[in-house]
Amino acid sequence: MENASQPEQLRAERQFARSVLAGILLLGLVAIAGPLLSYRSDVHEAHNQFQDRLNRESRVYSDAIGLHLKLLKSELERVSLGLGPEMQEERATEDMLDLTSPETGIFRQGVALLDATGKPRWSEPPQLLDTAGSLRNRPWFQRALNQQTASVDALHPGSSTFVVAIPVVRHGRTAGVLVGLLDAEVEVPGSRPSSKYLTLLVLNRAGDLFIPRAPPAWATGPGFAGKVEALLRDGGQQLETGDDEVFAWATSIPGTDLRLVLAGDESIPLAPIRSRLLVQLLTLAVLQLGTLLLFSLHWRRVYRLFLEMERRAAEKETMAALGSAASLIAHEVKNSLNGIKVAVGTLPPSEEHRLAVHTLRGQVDRLAHLATSLLHFGKPPRVQYMLVNLPHLVREVLDGLRVLPEAEEVRVEAHLGEELLLSGDPLLLATALDNLVRNAMEAAVAAKDLGQLSSPEVRVNVRQEDGEAVVEVEDNAGGPPPGFEARLFEPFVTTKPKGVGLGLSMTRRALEQQGGRLTFTRLPGGSRFTLRMTVRPPPKDIQEQTT
């Protein structure tokens, strides 16, 4: 039955362990779900904030550049009004020097006047546009010449030089074009983005980039101008950069045909959120691992406790059944022994019967001790506390064991002292001491019979130590087999061929009933059993009886 129940027990244990581990895993998933949902929400919010920032800052940059270009147009218009009907240089010299001053000028690269054919009439500094013969075909020149509208554009395709062109109108026709040149990346305010992960681009309709001077590769490919127009029409969107993506937002610069694009790498502002998520997940992983470790340790402890309780319950049931049977057997044995003892007492004390009588009395005493042990095992007696003189009690036990056959072969040394009073049950204490000394004597004689020693010895010491009464019973019988110490005090477990295995178990139980304890120590060549009981004043009723 026991073997058949083991597979079911193992299955139940595995099912329980799987259920608990599944519960811990579920708790771990629930714990991880929180940071993941929070991360998703944070990323979504950061994404929206990033797009709003690009939209907002692109408009701010666009308005700043537009206002600056409007100022440049106004200054050039003021200068153009002072040129006179013949557009003489002398009349605008002072104004042009102010505009092109290296310290305070707003056109530090220079200002030039072009006639209706696109050829320079004069410039400051001189010969500013020597290679400007082809300027007549530039869109900004045609708009100023034909439409008589101010224009801002690149001086040449792909050039980072801004040209601000103002038509000079005389008598309803365009007599020339006054242009101011400036380095867009240096002289235009707001041409540098506020963060290192942002890229600001300024270009015209044709895709000529003014800002920055060294644009990123993804902004110089064919079709980029079309992407910018799509951004203007549809709003911000992702742009492929080859290795990654950037989010870009485009807006028109007021008063010009220029476009401003602000692009940003969204992974940089999201990096702290990802780092926070990794820290949270790492913390959860450590906590989860710690929980599993603590659970494993606790589970092992609880499982061992469960097995111990189950073993004790099974042992208790077995002992109860054995106790009932043992009590019945012991009762019948004692009745028979009483008859044998009476019969032995009727034998004449002659020399020829002395050995037989001595042997019979020894065996009767041994069987009586066994029957008493079985009776006590089946029905443990109640503790009857009395005032006990421990050395005197030990001496009586040793005197009672002199009738054993082993007493003639074992040398018993006793160091008992004068007086050591304690409160206890003298019958239980005497039984416990009898078991200890009897076992030591039998073990010593058995070792002699096996040729392991020549002179069996048993030593009994009684002393007081740290408020406790201590009785030590030592022998030189070699001790129990290695590894047997853990089972010394189990019922029906013995190393003696003719033993029953109840002596030590009953001795320990009798001592624990009185608040004492019994321990075993292996000695070189022998064993030591130590009995300890607290020296307490006897109860008042015992004191009254003794007085």
Automatic annotation (TrEMBL):
Domain of life: Bacteria
UniProt-listed Pfam families: HATPase_c
E.C. designation(s): 2.7.13.3
Enzyme class label: transferase
Residue ranges occupied by any Histidine kinase domain in the UniProt entry: 328-537
Full protein name: histidine kinase
UniProt keyword list: ATP-binding, Kinase, Membrane, Nucleotide-binding, Phosphoprotein, Transferase, Transmembrane, Transmembrane helix, Two-component regulatory system
InterPro entries in the cross-refs: HATPase_C_sf (IPR036890), HATPase_dom (IPR003594), His_kinase_dom (IPR005467), HisK_dim/P_dom (IPR003661), HisK_dim/P_sf (IPR036097), Sig_transdc_His_kin-like_C (IPR004358)
SMART domains: HATPase_c
A single MF term (Gene Ontology): kinase activity
Record field: transmembrane: 20-39, 277-299
Organism per entry: Archangium minus
Catalysed reaction, written as an equation: ATP + protein L-histidine = ADP + protein N-phospho-L-histidine
UniProt keyword tRNA processing present: no
